[in-house]
């Protein structure tokens, strides 16, 4: 890709919709969207809901529309550290014009409030469509996270298959819990959370389309009874329920896996690699693929399966790179076309990846759900592994796995070559590490009476400032699952307080007490924003809603959206998310913007597990330096707190 193409892509801007971060950069894209395409939204929120889950949803409140002035004030505060005083003056003027009585803001607000009266979640379908299904970048690196499980003991293919069978058995067991409404209702404080994402993670597949993809969900009244296993780029249908409708045992599943690996050893035409390409490329190839009825049958089987299981070949030699970082790359991109990059169906919501030397995890397509339900699935599967498997009856005959054939035309061969080239370029460009900070975990900030999440967020802000000597716009996802159909709101973690804190920490003339004071103000300021965001009162979804309602009504998008404060505060150089799991695991993904970092973390009591990445092609960023800067920041924050406490004694 030449520099001008790259600039063009950047301008189009729908970057990393996965974490829902696309909306700002998306704004430029939406600028050019005509209102009729907005009106043609076809994504229905309730498609996949299991009838039982649907009933437990009924008491959840609708997503509120925040008051206009509250959002605008918050927007101004969040943009302040990222612009000059002169630029800020212009932004303030624009905000005044926008919010004036009779101005565009109140008119759009009224339209949005009217829409909100007709639906229980005014953002849900818009979000699915604009943040995911219309996103044209590849899902690999740009959208789909990897989830790295604790490393397992696997020394040979036999053990790889035993682990795979146990993982499948554990995941099917989790599916039974979902279907039988046996998952404990999750809460935030006292508030029950929307559980519907759980019923969407299995049996779902993204289907490529131009200009918009779609999601195919399993029929909740006739749920799928098979998984698909990928082995050497071949795909096999593997039934996981017996004739009596009961889940097969681990042994029965294992027998089927043995049959697969004893079959064809020659790798298949790498059809799966097509799913890693830019969505328009894949959309075109898909049209070619479905000209053949045999391919249609194979595709249907993949789409309808509960999930994919990738029995991988060995990874390439990464030299001295640690196990976690290797597994992170395997989960995010399969290490390219010469390795496991085609042993995938990246459109499938859940793909378990089982490596040859104990790597285990999930590659997950983000559009139907956020990280926490996927982490819930992981925790269940890891429990089953740790217990030595489920003790299910092994009676009854074992069905045979069914090889799924694909025929390829010369056009498809060509598309495969393009996809291989594109995937390899992405793989080469991504610098990613799995990293564990061992100095302390969430118990330390708690002992200091500070929110652990806000504390970690401020350490990340500090690390960025330490490296770049300037503030970085910073995205954190906050769950809005308190509300019906809720997904996320953005926490804008960069604030005047976070910058003052980073500056104070790096200023030798400041006393430790002054540093601690600045830290507490930053942490508490972040916590305040978090509470507003989880209560549906952030800046980002509201401003996106106002823009989309303008487009829907053929109203010109207001100047405010082109202003430097909006653009810069939306260029999220730091893309973060807490995905907590019970086990020693972490989620990882690519940065949101070309000159950015991604940092996803699982805070445990006494350590923090993280996935950190940056693009090698950006001369300003380095994931390795960021990791070191973060470690130093965590250490410095600890030391200054401990020192000031000792001096008080
Ligand atoms: N003093 C002592 N303890 C405190 C404290 C303080 N001042 N503030 C918070 N704590 C405690 C809390 O009570 C809580 O205790 P618990 O572990 O016993 O429950 C713990 O510290 C953690 O709280 P905190 O770190 O403040 O945040 P959180 O767990 O509420 O998480 C978010 C904050 C934003 C991560 C969470 O609300 C959220 O939205 N998570 C989902 C994000 C998501 O969807 N990510 C995936 C996107 S793909």
From TrEMBL:
**UniProt superkingdom:** Eukaryota
- Keyword vocabulary terms for this entry: Acyltransferase, Transferase
Give a yes or no for keyword Transmembrane helix in this entry.
no
GO MF, one example: carnitine O-acetyltransferase activity
InterPro entries hit by this protein: Carn_acyl_trans, CAT-like_dom_sf, Cho/carn_acyl_trans, Cho/carn_acyl_trans_2
Which sites are catalytic? 366 (proton acceptor)
**Cellular component aspect of the GO annotation:** peroxisome
Example GO BP: carnitine metabolic process, CoA-linked
In this record, what's one Pfam family? Carn_acyltransf
Q: Where is the Choline/carnitine acyltransferase domain?
A: 63-632
What family classification does the UniProt entry report for this protein? Belongs to the carnitine/choline acetyltransferase family.
Kindly provide the name given to this protein in its UniProt entry.
Choline/carnitine acyltransferase domain-containing protein
């Amino acid at each position: 890709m030449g520099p001008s193409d790259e600039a063009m892509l950047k301008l189009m801007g729908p970057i990393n919709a996965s974490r829902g971060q696309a909306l700002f950069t998306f704004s430029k894209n939406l600028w050019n969207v005509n209102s009729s395409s907005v009106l043609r939204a076809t994504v229905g929120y309730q498609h996949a809901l299991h009838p039982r889950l649907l009933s437990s949803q009924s008491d959840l409140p609708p997503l509120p529309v925040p008051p206009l002035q509250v959002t605008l004030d918050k927007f101004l505060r969040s943009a302040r550290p990222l612009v000059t005083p002169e630029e800020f003056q212009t932004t303030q003027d624009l905000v005044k014009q926008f919010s004036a009585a009779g101005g565009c803001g109140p008119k759009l607000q009224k339209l949005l409030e009217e829409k909100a009266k007709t639906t229980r979640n005014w953002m849900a379908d818009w979000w699915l469509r604009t943040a995911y299904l219309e996103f044209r970048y590849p899902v690999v690196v740009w959208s789909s996270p990897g989830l790295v499980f604790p490393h397992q003991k696997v020394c040979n293919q036999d053990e790889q298959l035993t682990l795979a069978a146990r993982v499948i058995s554990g995941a099917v067991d989790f599916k039974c819990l979902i279907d039988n409404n046996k998952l404990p209702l999750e809460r935030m404080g006292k508030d029950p959370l929307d559980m519907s994402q759980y019923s969407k993670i299995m049996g779902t597949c993204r289907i490529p389309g131009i200009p918009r993809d779609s999601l195919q969900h399993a029929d909740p009244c006739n749920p799928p009874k098979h998984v698909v296993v990928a082995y050497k780029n071949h795909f096999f249908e593997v039934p996981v329920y017996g004739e009596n409708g009961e889940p097969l045992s681990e042994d029965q599943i294992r027998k089927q896996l043995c049959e697969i690996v004893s079959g064809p050893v020659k790798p298949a035409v790498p059809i799966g690699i097509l799913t890693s390409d830019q969505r328009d490329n894949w959309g075109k190839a898909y049209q070619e693929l479905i000209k053949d009825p045999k391919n249609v049958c194979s595709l249907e089987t993949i789409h309808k399966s509960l999930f994919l299981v990738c029995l991988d070949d060995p990874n390439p030699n990464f030299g001295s790179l640690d196990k976690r970082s290797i597994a992170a790359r395997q989960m995010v991109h399969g290490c390219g076309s010469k390795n496991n990059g085609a042993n995938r169906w990246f459109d499938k919501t859940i793909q378990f990846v089982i490596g040859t030397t104990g790597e285990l995890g999930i590659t997950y397509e983000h559009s139907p759900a956020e990280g926490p339900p996927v982490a819930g699935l992981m925790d269940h599967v890891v429990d089953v592994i740790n217990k030595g498997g489920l003790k299910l009856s092994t009676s009854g005959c074992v069905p045979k796995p069914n090889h799924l054939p694909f025929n390829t035309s010369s056009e498809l061969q060509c598309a495969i070559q393009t996809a291989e080239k594109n995937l390899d370029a992405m793989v080469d460009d991504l610098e990613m590490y799995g990293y564990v900070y061992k100095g302390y975990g969430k118990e330390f900030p708690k002992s200091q009476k500070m929110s652990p999440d806000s504390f970690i967020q401020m350490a990340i802000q500090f690390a960025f400032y330490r490296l770049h000597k300037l503030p970085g716009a910073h995205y954190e996802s906050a769950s809005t699952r308190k509300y019906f159909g809720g997904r996320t709101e953005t926490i804008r973690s960069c604030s005047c307080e976070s910058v003052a804190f980073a500056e104070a920490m790096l200023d030798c003339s400041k006393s430790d007490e002054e540093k601690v004071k600045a830290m507490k103000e930053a942490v508490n300021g972040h916590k305040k924003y978090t509470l507003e965001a989880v209560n549906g009162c952030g800046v980002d979804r509201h401003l996106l809603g106002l823009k989309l309602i303008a487009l829907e009504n053929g109203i010109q998008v207001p100047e405010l959206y082109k202003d430097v404060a909006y653009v810069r505060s939306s260029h999220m150089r730091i893309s973060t998310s807490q995905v907590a799991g019970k086990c020693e695991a972490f989620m990882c993904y690519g940065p949101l913007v070309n000159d950015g970092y991604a940092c996803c973390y699982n805070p445990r009591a006494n350590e923090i597990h993280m996935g950190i990445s940056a693009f090698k092609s950006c001369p300003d960023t380095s994931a390795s330096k960021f990791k070191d800067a973060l470690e130093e920041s965590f250490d410095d924050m600890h030391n200054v707190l401990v020192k000031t406490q000792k001096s008080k004694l």
